[in-house]
């Protein structure tokens, strides 16, 4: 059975997914499925996935063709929703059963397009589906946080080319989430202001790292990016959790998010990338000090020994240069 185990040195939880177990010779990178007829995410293949949790439709009924967006449980989940946490100690170690939720958001019925090729209204549907699923998963008291992410391209971890993203609900708060929330809380404690709200003000004043600005959102290169052309999208409206967005925000976010991805795709010649929605952990009382945002990370370089051993990142592209380059590209 899948387990979560805690590293006692750095406090990091690891999922030991025995159902996804691989022998050493099975680790070479998987190639994405490219033939439409083979794709389990295409219309007509609904029986190849678990029953849908959510769908937006033009016609038809559940688990049949006629949908424009579909959310299904992952057929090979990292964590399973059934069961108890079964928290236990093993000497100095902590572990629990691999309980959680792992869902796939099939962003479009079309196999031949990417997320950034969708219309703004279709992109908005994807963003709204994230919100709906996060609100639903938040009701389960076993879950402490939800991570929404997209892997685009084999180098970014995708094994299917049909445009999709994923959600994983966790019974713990990931270490990186804790670190980010702690940093924001300490900043608020000393200055009585939200760190991200201050970032927005400074970036709008300096203008050197802005990719695009709208009434509701700011797309910019972070001051200390880990990766070349790393880009953040930050809401100007102070909210600690993504699921707090309203319809007008989702519409505005779809516009700037779509244009930002199109710029990255054009300027970097179709790169693999990941994006992650950073949202406050559940039940953490972070309304005052935390600020949700989205981080987009093109996969242009590889982590080597120094990065893995030190936690430092070596980025060959200054954020001011990457922002200028993206800003000057056509939308």
What attributes characterize this protein structure?
331 residues, four-stranded antiparallel β-sheet, ten-stranded antiparallel β-sheet, 2 domains, HIT family, subunit A, alpha+beta, 6 helices
Describe the structure.
The protein has 331 residues and is α+β, with helices and mostly antiparallel strands. It has 6 helices and 14 strands. The chain has helices at 120-138, 175-191, 195-206, 247-267, 305-310, 319-327; strands at 3-6, 13-16, 54-57, 67-73, 88-90, 93-97, 101-106, 145-152, 164-170, 210-213, 217-220, 231-235, 273-278, 293-298. The radius of gyration is 20 Å and the shape is globular. The model is unreliable at 22-34 (pLDDT under 50).
Write the layout of secondary structure elements.
Blueprint (H helix, E strand, L loop, with lengths): L2 E4 L6 E4 L37 E4 L9 E7 L14 E3 L2 E5 L3 E6 L13 H19 L6 E8 L11 E7 L4 H17 L3 H12 L3 E4 L3 E4 L10 E5 L11 H21 L5 E6 L14 E6 L6 H6 L8 H9 L4
Helix pairs in contact: 1-4
Work out the oligomeric state of the chains in this entry.
single chain
Strand content: 15-25%
According to CATH, what is the class of the largest domain? Answer: Alpha Beta
Question: Order of strands across the widest beta sheet?
Answer: 3-4-7-9-8-13-14-12-11-10
CATH architecture of the largest domain: 2-Layer Sandwich
Q: How many structural domains does the protein architecture include?
A: 2
